[in-house]
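input
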Amino acid sequence: MTDYKRTLITSALPYANGPVHIGHLAGVYVPADIYARYLRLKGEEVAFIGGSDEHGVPITLKAKKEGVTPQDVVDKYHGMIKDSFQRFGISFDVYSRTSAKVHHETASEFFKKLYDDGKFIEKTSEQYYDEEANQFLADRYITGTCPKCGNEKAYGDQCESCGTSLNATDLINPKSVLSGNIPVMKETKHWYLPLDQYEPWLKEWILEGHKEWKTNVYGQCKSWIDSGLQPRAVTRDLDWGVPVPLDEAKGKVLYVWFDAPIGYISATKELTPEWEKWWKDPETKMVHFIGKDNIVFHCIIFPAMLKAEGTYILPDNVPANEFLNLEGDKISTSRNWAVWLHEYLDEFPGKEDVLKYTLTANAPETKDNDFTWKDYQARNNNELVAVLGNFVNRALVLTQKYYEGVIPEAGELNTTDRTTLLEIRNIKAEVEKSLDNYRFREALKLAMDLARLGNKYLADEEPWKVVKTDPERVKTVMNTCLQITANLTIMLQPFLPFSMDKLRGFINLEELNWANLGRTDLLPAGHKVNTPELLFEKIEDATIEAQVQKLLDTKKANEAANAVAKPAKENCTYDDFQKMDIRTGTIIEAEKVAKTKKLMKLKIDTGIDQRTVVSGIAEYYEPEQVIGRQVSILVNLEPRELRGIMSQGMILMAEDADGSLKFVSPVQTVKNGSEIK
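output
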C-alpha cells in the first residue's frame, strides 16, 4: 500500500432539482463524513469536497414546468441542499456548485486541453429537431408511445411505466415537449471520448490493479469492460450548461456526465489556491464516495478523462454503496416516497445523530437495505438510550452522588479493571481496521462495544452495593467508568459528532485526537464533571406512527393519482337514457341523519317543487358546506325510504380515484328545473 501525505475525499454531487433524502445520506454522505472526521481525528491532512450538480435536461424540464429559469431552479435547490447538509453536520471543507464561474472555466479548460491534444473524435449523426422551437431535442424533450408497453407518455430515453431503456427513434408517434409538434431528423456534429481506446488500460488498472475494491464495484466495472466500451459523446445540443469552447460549437454545451465530475476539481480550486497538490501530487490519496448508479462514471469514464488529460492522479478507491429502500419500497422522488432531510431536521430537532446512527447501522454497503421507522425507533431506544446513554448517565450520576462530581483517585487495579481498560485499545485497533477498509457499519458496531463493555463492567462491579462495605474500591470502579466515558468521546466522534460534543460538555473535556484513544488518564483525579443530562431520549410510539401515517398518506395519494378509470358499463339504448329526467336544483336545507356516518338529509328546490333527498355525502361534506349549492338531480327516480325518511330522487356525484365524492354541477348558474340532456 502506498504511503500518502494527504487524502482527497469527494462525494457525489447531488442533483439540484430536488432536496436530499435518506437514500442519498446512507449511500454517500454519511459514510464520507465518517471517513473525513476519522482522518481529521488522526491528524491527517484532508479535503472533503462537495457541491451541487446543476446542469442537464431534468433541470430545464423542471424550469419549463414551473415557468421559471433553470438558474432559478438550481438556486432554490442548491440553497436547500447546502443548508440541510450544514444543519445535519456533514463536514464538507467546501460545498460548491457547477453553475459557478470557477466551474465553467475549469470544465472549459479541461475540454480544450483534451481537444487540443487530439483526444476526441468527431461524429455527425441525425437527431430529432423541433423546427418551431428551432433547436435539437434531448431525449427527455421527446415523448411518444412506448413500443413495448404502449405507454403514450414514454420519454426518448426510457419508459417510466415499464422501465425499458429506449432510443428516441424507438418511440411511436414522437412529439416535442417544447411545441407539441412532430420533430424532424436533422444532422448535428458532436465530440466523443473514445472509451474503447482506453479499454486495455482500464483492464490493467482496475481488473488487475484494484482487486481490493468492493465486490459490487469491481463486478460492475468488469461487466462493463468485458462487454466492450464504446465512444461516448461529451457535447450535446442544449442551451443550459457549460458552453463548448469552440467557435464551431455554438449552441452546444458539455454533456453533464462530462462536466459534473470536473466539479470536484473546480470546488477544490474554490477551496484553496494550492488545489494542484490535491489533484496532481501522487502523494495524495483520492477516494470517491458514491452510490452504485455512479460506479461506471467514477471508475471508468472519469478515470479515462483524467488519464487522457495526463496530469491528474487517479482514485485509490471508490467504496460505492448499494441502494437504501424505504419501508420495503424503492425510494422515489417523483412519487414523494422518501424521508426528506430538511423535513426530518424540522420534525426531529436535536436528533441528527439518531438518523446518522440508524443509517450507518443499516447501511447498504454490500446489498440494498431497508429503512423503516420502527427500526429507527428501536435503534434509538434499545441502543443509543439503553446502551450508550444508560452507561454514561449512570457513571456521571454516581460520580455526582458519591463525589459531588469530582473524579476520585483510583486505587490499585485488579485483573478485571486492567482487562477492561486494556479492551479499549483492542476495540480501537478493530475500529481502525474497519474504517481503513470502508466498513462503516462494522466500525460503528465495534465502537458501540465500548459502551457495552462499560455497562457490563458497571453492572458486574455494582458500586451502589460495594460503596457501603468498600468505599475505596468504588473509587477505582468509578475512575475506570469515567475513563471509558472519556474514550467514548473520541471513538464515537466520527459517528455521533453532536452527541459527543454534548458528552464532552458533561465531563468538561476538550476535543482530543485519535492518538489519545486508549489512554486511561484522560480525566485526572480531582477533575470536576458537570451535572449530567440525558444524552439521548426515548422516542415514543406516537411519533413513529405519525411518520408511518405520513408515508401511507403519500402512497394513497399516489395510488389515487395513478388509478385507472373503471371500464364502461354495458351499453344502454337511447330510449333507456331518455327515460331519465335529470334537472338542475339548489340545496336549500341540509342536516346529517342521526346515527349514520354517510347519510345527509337534503331539501332541494328542483324548479318543479321542493323535495327531500337522502344522499350518502356526509363523510365528505358538512351541512353548511352544501346549502346553496346547485346540483344535478334525477327527479323521476322511484321514491325510497331510507332510515325512516322518504327520499324523492338522487343527486349526481362523481367518485374520485381516492373514493371521495364530488358534485356534478353546471359550470354556470342556471334556472332550477333546467333539463340536463
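quick obs: The chain has a mean pLDDT of 94.
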